[in-house]
Amino acid sequence: MHAVASFFSGIGGLDLGLELAGFDVRFQCEAKPFCRELLRQHWPGIPLDEDIRTLDDTKIPEADVWAAGFPCQDLSLARMGPRSGLRGVQSGLFHDFMRLVGARTPRAIILENVHGLLSSHGGRDFTVVLQALDELGYGVAWRVLNSKDFGIPQQRRRVYIVAMHRDPRGPGEVLFEPQCGGWNSSKGRPDGEEPTSLFQKILGDPSKGPLVKSIAHCIYAESARHTGTDWSRNYVWYPDGRVRRFTANEVERVQGFPADWTLPANRSMADSERIDSLRYHAVGNSVSPPVAEWVGRRLIAVLERQDRELLEKSVAAFDSRFGRSTPVAA
Ligand SMILES: C[S@@+](CC[C@H](N)C(=O)[O-])C[C@H]1O[C@@H](n2cnc3c(N)ncnc32)[C@H](O)[C@@H]1O
Questions:
Q1: What CATH number belongs to 1-330?
Q2: What is the pLDDT of residues 228-239, one digit of tens each?
Q3: Phi and psi torsions of 19, nearest 5°
Q4: How many CB atoms sit inside 10 A of residue 94's CB?
């Protein structure tokens, strides 16, 4: 089984998707205590570090794939004013990640970020990312994927970068295959399964309400106390004129997580508003698991193709040296 080490793990959206694709999650690293509590809940016993800046590379267990959705605050187009990009304190943590990559050279890397990464500082930040990977010998491909094309009722465009060590062909094979569904695809998941829309199920009869857009606007990291305009513009309308924002449970489902994924097992009622804020925020920062699952399945296929080719090469080298080898009878 292929193993994955996850960095900037958040609530484990990438991790969950990769696990569903067939990866074994071996390591996680996350700064926020609330997120770490949830990671421990879902992946008990996995080594969990809390700060990538001080992380010693020898503490990371062997894993052929490293996955990282590094912080995007300094790159996001949702942010007002100038974007400090990869020089920003948060997004600059990318360089800490690359320090570890340089020390351990994992076989493949998956990076996820806001699509603002492609344009911040006129594209110079993205060049830094590509150069850093190239200098360490990685072939790279990237693609903007939208969660709505993966059975999730949400517009969420994110750039996925796949890098494979000494393989210029593999990353493109992972990300580009005409299986992703059309831009306006309503079919949903590229694997042919029916989309699982919480609201489409609940809203069987629109005349009775409540009403909600079938595809939500992008879910941003926000708090439960939000009283002004909802950044994400996601509302539920009732026939009697009431309007409300999505609940924390709803944003979690609209991101493609299983129900209650972000509900801590140990909580008190008195804590509920604080926990709701933490949930809204963490879900807004997370990766939609079904998108990660799609990338993960395709990556496994390419890793297996590489393994086969390596085996064929070794057999051919053996044959040319010692004569034709015969398969061992079962
Ligand atoms: C964009 S989110 C990643 C979300 C994650 N991919 C998911 O699906 O939930 C970035 C995460 O990096 C974490 N982070 C920030 N500084 C960090 C540090 N120094 N070490 C480890 N994690 C850090 C943040 O707390 C945040 O959860």
A1: 3.40.50.150
A2: 455 556 778 787
A3: -65, -45
A4: 26
